[in-house]
Design goal:
Blueprint: E1 5-6, H1 8-49, H2 54-73, H3 75-86, H4 93-102, H5 105-113, E2 116-117
Antiparallel strand pairs: 1-2
Helix pairs in contact: 1-2, 1-3, 1-4, 1-5, 3-4, 4-5
């Protein structure tokens, strides 16, 4: 498979997307742990006092499941951005759109604006030949 090259914008977008996905994943896992910890304390209190509603426990379970699903969805931009950085992706469009939707606007836009080509990206500045009249 032909490895592809990317310019600085695309590379910066991948890095921003990876970092933001990691931060979002970490925070949502912490949120799920806190919710599950609060759920265990609610279940303990409801079993001893009987005053806590089952609705609160069910709501906390749904919230914990939501946090876990959000954390798992952050794997998509992570995998797409890593494949793009390694040069194994066919195009930068899917990685940009997935990053735009799931991990943030900045990384996704940088990936979409950047160039991802099969030929090496020329970063050197070439001078135009001067024409004398």
């Amino acid at each position: 498979m032909n490895e592809k090259q990317m310019d600085g914008l695309c590379k910066a977008g991948c890095i921003v997307s990876i970092i933001s996905s990691g931060i979002i994943m970490l925070l949502t896992i912490i949120g799920a742990i806190i919710t599950l910890t609060a759920l265990s304390s609610v279940e303990t209190a409801s079993s001893t006092s009987g005053g806590i509603s089952e609705v609160v426990a069910t709501t906390k379970k749904i919230t914990a499941i939501f946090w876990i699903v959000v954390a798992l969805l952050q794997l998509l931009p992570l995998f797409f951005s890593i494949n793009l950085l390694r040069g194994k992706a066919n195009s930068n469009i899917p990685a940009g759109v997935i990053s735009l939707i799931f991990s943030g606007v900045i990384g996704g836009i940088l990936i979409l604006v950047g160039k991802y080509t099969a030929t090496p990206v020329d970063t050197s500045v070439t001078q135009q030949p001067t024409v004398e009249v």
